[in-house]
Known about the structure:
This protein has eight helices and eight strands; from the N terminus they run ααααααββββββββαα. It is α+β, with helices and mostly antiparallel strands. Flavin-adenine dinucleotide binds next to strand 1 and strand 3.
Amino acid sequence: xxxxxxxxxxxxxxxxxxxEKVVKPRAKEIEESDExxxxxxxxxxxxxxxxxxxxxxxxxxxxxITSFCIISEEIAKVSASMSLLVIVQSVGTLPIxxxxxxxxxxxxxxxxxxxxxxxAFCLTEPLAGSDVGSMQMTATKEGNRYFLxxxxxxxxxxxxxxxxxVFAKTNPSRGRRGISAFVVEKGLSGMTFSSKDDKIGMRGIxxxxxxxxxxxxxxxxxxxxxxxxxxxxxxxxxxxxxxxGAQALGIAESAMEIATLFAMSKETIRKAHCQxxxxxxxxxxxxxxx
Length: 290
Ligand SMILES: Cc1cc2nc3c(=O)[nH]c(=O)nc-3n(C[C@H](O)[C@H](O)[C@H](O)COP(=O)(O)OP(=O)(O)OC[C@H]3O[C@@H](n4cnc5c(N)ncnc54)[C@H](O)[C@@H]3O)c2cc1C
């Protein structure tokens, strides 16, 4: 059976304290204002949460997926959107860590903790969600450059991120095998950001659409080989899926606690609970219905 080591237990205690003392007091305000919380991002960098999977030799903290899940769950208990900040940062970092060349890891990976860079992951398109292979965006090679054309939507951290992992087809006739991945730094000409989506939850961490029109990028920004994009996307998503589960668990645990406290504050429910207890004593049971 899997058991937490002392290292995990200690991380859990630390994150729980940060969540209670630092995140919880800001949570409602972040949700209402829908402004990206720079203070939280800076604090999360200080705690190591936004560079959790980056190895120590690249300036990160080099923790594993279980640690990533612990952080995501504990923060989600007080703020789902602050947990999203942690998760998306790693989704945007993983392509570089898993498939980047040594020089890309040094150039783009080590800059994340050093310069407190925020990451984004641009896969989804208006006509390509679950069905990644039907993406329309293209990267056309000319000499030692590619030109990006197309549109991405639901880009979490869109507009605030410093580096974007962008998936585009270098060979449209090959379906998902024709997809390639690029690391794109902010500020390139031809990238237009829509206004942020007006979400009903997960506010404060923006998402938006990005239009790419003849965006020029050098071929040194290609991650892995041409055609590796689908594999890079799936491997990165697979490693962050457990944290999405942990986030959902954190939200559910908190909702359960709030609902229970609310229910117990109601006179009728308290009375019913006491009556169930008395019935159990007379019947010799434990008060449970089953
Ligand atoms: C809060 C949030 C943040 C996000 N952040 C990002 C981000 O940072 N970067 C990014 O690239 N994307 C992001 N996304 C987009 C997300 O990855 C997509 O929403 C997801 O891939 C699903 O795509 P879709 O919304 O087009 O739904 P669809 O693919 O159209 O799916 C709609 C429904 O149909 C079902 N379905 C689809 N295909 C099949 C099938 N073959 N058989 C049976 N059922 C099927 C799905 O399960 C789903 O229930 C984000 C989304 C949300 C909600």
